């Protein structure tokens, strides 16, 4: 049975749009895009969820903890699961928080580091070779209770799709721009409504099959 490992942050975990802090919520399995993707791929596939709210591609978060660094998380995930056939990576949203002084090239460099790990001989041989799908997350909006953490983030996010696409092409990875099909919620400007999860899950399933 082919296995797809989905590596990401709160939008892979399934966090609904936030109206208050400190209230842990999560969409049900069938609502999350990972669950939708699994249903679309069918019983012949296994979809493994590795979404962590707050995860970055490359930063130890001084507020949320050093374990938010996706470089460490990806190594752990790739050594905890397997063998896998496809890895999806949808990260970058948390890297454009104001406290990380973001700029497009730096955010893209974080994704490049994750590709370096995933496509390394060590990891590829461990799993008997697997394909990677880079997903550019939907652009953030500076609204709602999280606005203060993302001041200036909209301009950085606007430059990411083209840069992610170029990086994926250069590394021989698949690419999917979530901005072509969904947008973030008007409630908090970061997370996805259930309807967006449905659309994204189906799109990722199509992209995985194309690999």
Summarize the structure.
This protein is an alpha/beta fold and 211 residues long. Helices cover 38% and strands 13% of the residues.
Description:
By secondary structure, the protein is α/β, with parallel strands linked by helices. The protein has one domain: Rossmann fold (3-Layer(aba) Sandwich), CATH 3.40.50.1110. It has helices at residues 10-13, 33-41, 70-80, 104-118, 121-127, 153-158, 160-171, 194-210, and strands spanning 3-8, 46-51, 86-90, 131-136, 174-177. Strands 2-1-3-4-5 form a five-stranded parallel sheet, with helices on both faces. α3 packs parallel to α4. The radius of gyration is 16 Å and the shape is globular. Residues 7-198 form the SGNH hydrolase-type esterase domain. This is SGNH hydrolase-type esterase domain-containing protein. It comes from Roseisalinus antarcticus. InterPro entries: SGNH_hydro, SGNH_hydro_sf. Pfam families: Lipase_GDSL_2.
